[in-house]
Amino acid sequence: MASVQSTAKPSARERLLAAANELFYAEGVQTVGIDRVIEHAGVAKASLYNTFGGKEQLVRAYLDTRHAATADRLTRAVAERDTPREQMLAVFESQGRQFDRPDFHGCAFIRAGAEASPGGLVQEAADAFRGWMRALFTRLAAEAGAADPDTLGRQLQLLYDGAGISALMDHDSTVASTSHAAATSLIAAATGASAEA
Amino acid sequence: MASVQSTAKPSARERLLAAANELFYAEGVQTVGIDRVIEHAGVAKASLYNTFGGKEQLVRAYLDTRHAATADRLTRAVAERDTPREQMLAVFESQGRQFDRPDFHGCAFIRAGAEASPGGLVQEAADAFRGWMRALFTRLAAEAGAADPDTLGRQLQLLYDGAGISALMDHDSTVASTSHAAATSLIAAATGASAEA
DNA sequence: ACTCCTTCAGACAGATCTGTCTACATTATG
DNA sequence: CATAATGTAGACAGATCTGTCTGAAGGAGT
């Protein structure tokens, strides 16, 4: 099954996923055509169709890759903190660090979902990612002793989504501190703890 | 300049805007082609290009129309309440009523912005709308006596955007109560008032 | 009656997109 | 060496999209 090369050039599949990640995320799924992806990947068109079957499946694979990468990043950020309250805030801090990246272009799932037709592979991938995010927030809310973990988890997801939207559309990376402060308030209100800085 | 007819059929401009509003909002700006818009409007293609100049300008006019309609709706919802605190919550209640509409498909500006190229007419329209929303929240926050009206205004906009995203992508119209409760908490925290139900 | 303006209906050009197909090169393995 | 899998390069078909253009119909005002 290959997958051991290090200096040699990666497989066609890996190059296609890398090119799809750069182009689809930067410019949108609908805007970028197949020809630009294969040119950027340095791959023949037949390789794309042999490997993935079609554009929609490539988009699905691109979203699955981002799902895995984001889940890894947030899981690591959470693991670095000790208390559930700090772990919830660590999610917003990790998100805020993404806002400062020059290649930041908002949440890939929201953007792809806004373009895709309902019921397709894109919506499947978006549902999976959003379910994972909500489960993360809800679990941490429960561990923090929230009276209603499900409600606090949903509230934090609202802030997380809203912050991503604002960072994308308002070009305002200071929104990270806004969402962090709001999360602090909501956590305090839901757990009855003090909201000290 | 016309504009007095009532029973007769509306002008080509009005029919085009109505068709654009239905199709662009329901299926996306990029997905819907010019031919479908003019067919749905019962209008010749030349009328579209004579009236608006091109697709991008039609999209811009469609977004401006939605901006005006949404501003009217929220302004009326705010005017029905007496205190600034209730007026802020009225914005979320009005948004929540939109979630239950069968033709609800999320925030038109976020969806169009996710598809459009940066720096174009779509982004102009989105900036205008988002600026209006933020000014509304900030003004109400100041009138409510918030210690930092700008921060509370931004926080409420996070919730507003997040609620719209969740209603669109999770098909969960109960998010309205979640955002309402979160807004209540954040208002209470920022004004020092009690957050009674 | 005559003219101007809007509108309609649709052909047409030029570009682009997805997906298929052929033919050839490379590489690993038996 | 031989074979099979994988990848490359690019032509090609079929569809679709934006935008332009021609030609005719209808209504309003002088």
E-strand count of chain A: 0
CATH class category of the largest domain in chain A: Mainly Alpha
Largest interface (CB within 8 Å) is between: A-B, 41 and 41 residues
User: Helix coverage percent of residues of chain A?
Assistant: over 70%
| Biggest sheet record of chain A | none
Q: What is the rounded Rg of chain A? A: 19 Å
Question: What is the assigned CATH homologous superfamily of the largest domain in chain A?
Answer: Tetracycline Repressor, domain 2
**Annotation field: number of helices of chain A:** 9
Alpha-carbon distance between the two ends of chain A: 52 Å
CATH architecture designation of the largest domain in chain A? Orthogonal Bundle
> Which geometry of chain A do the CA atoms define?
elongated
Low-confidence stretches of chain A: 1-7
| Class computed from helices, strands and strand pairing of chain A | mainly alpha
CATH fold group of the largest domain in chain A: Tetracycline Repressor, domain 2
Number of domains of chain A: 2
Let me know the average pLDDT of chain A.
92
Protein name (chains A, B): TetR/AcrR family transcriptional regulator
Keywords (chains A, B): DNA-binding, Transcription, Transcription regulation
InterPro entries (chains A, B): Homeodomain-like_sf, HTH_TetR, Tet_transcr_reg_TetR-rel_C_sf
DNA-binding region (chains A, B): 33-52
Task: Report what the structure shows.
2 copies of one chain form a homodimer. The first copy, chain A, has 197 residues and is mainly α. Chain A folds into 2 domains: 10-53, Homeodomain-like (Arc Repressor Mutant, subunit A); 56-191, Tetracycline Repressor, domain 2 (Orthogonal Bundle). The first copy, chain A, contains 9 helices and no strands. In chain A, helix 4 (55-79) runs parallel beside helix 7 (121-143). Chain A is elongated, with a radius of gyration of 19 Å. The termini of chain A are far apart. Chain A binds chain B through residues 27-28, 30-31, 106, 109-111, 113-115, 117, 126-127, 130, 151, 154-155, 157-163, 165-166, 168-170, 175, 178-179, 181-182, 185-186, 188-190, 195, and chain B through 27-28, 30-31, 106, 109-111, 113-115, 117, 126-127, 130, 151, 154-155, 157-163, 165-166, 168-170, 175, 178-179, 181-182, 185-186, 188-190, 195. Chain A binds a DNA duplex (30 and 30 nucleotides) through helix 3.
